[in-house]
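P.,

For your records, the input lines for the assembly:
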Amino acid sequence: MANVPLDQGLLLAAILFALGLAGVLVRRNLLFMLMSLEVMLNATGVAFVVAGARWAAADGQIMFILVLTFAAAEVSVGLALVLLLHRQIPTLDADAGNHLRG
Amino acid sequence: MNATFDLSAIIAVLATVMMITRASAVHALLYLTVSLLAVAMVFFVLGAPFAAALEVIIYAGAIMVLFVFVVMMLNIGDEAAALERAWLKPSIWIGPSVLALLLAIELGALAATGGLARPAGVVVDVQAVGIALVGPYMLAVEIASFLLLAALVAAFHLGRAVMKGA
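Structure tokens returned:
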């Protein structure tokens, strides 16, 4: 890629991934943790597309599509679980779920 | 063009930082949507228009709608209406709007100058991706379909449990 150097694109992916990781670690709200997970998955997608553009190959975009599929599956199940948990414990605090039994 | 990439990347990082630090889930969703749109712009600059379109349609479209629905379902109550009124203040939506406006200006500038000033080195278009997808990556497509089916069954099962519990 002549226009955008590989390291700049990978730097963007790394920053986004680090931000998502920080979000997962810092926030205790389940919705925010899921959103930060989305940011992390998106960052991996950025890395794939940047690498695919660097070698002018379609493989990067295909891996991005697979990451996208995974993100969609993950978020649908995750949000359904959040809704279920919200019925049991009327809070979105992740630490409140430590009394789960069977 | 490098400036387009830089501006989009800065908007993406800025919006993500704002998303993590918001107190309310809806405000964070606004910023997350802007961040995803900025990443779509990055893909477009990198010569991956198909990935950019998928990013807008699936990430900024479908997944964000799921989040909004869940936030909506979790916020049922009298205080939700009062909260809604407080959220309509300009100070809430001005941040995401300005960032989205910057992206729109960027896109408009690109369109006005007839696409990328210096076209991306090689544009990997939809055709190349599609051919690779049904060729050497057929197995990956099958795995993705398994994954989506599993997610569908799981979401249906969990959703039914929610309905019964209500």
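Two observations worth noting. Chain B has two domains: 2-123, 136-166. The domain at 2-123 of chain B is CATH 1.20.120.1200 (Four Helix Bundle (Hemerythrin (Met), subunit A)).

Regards
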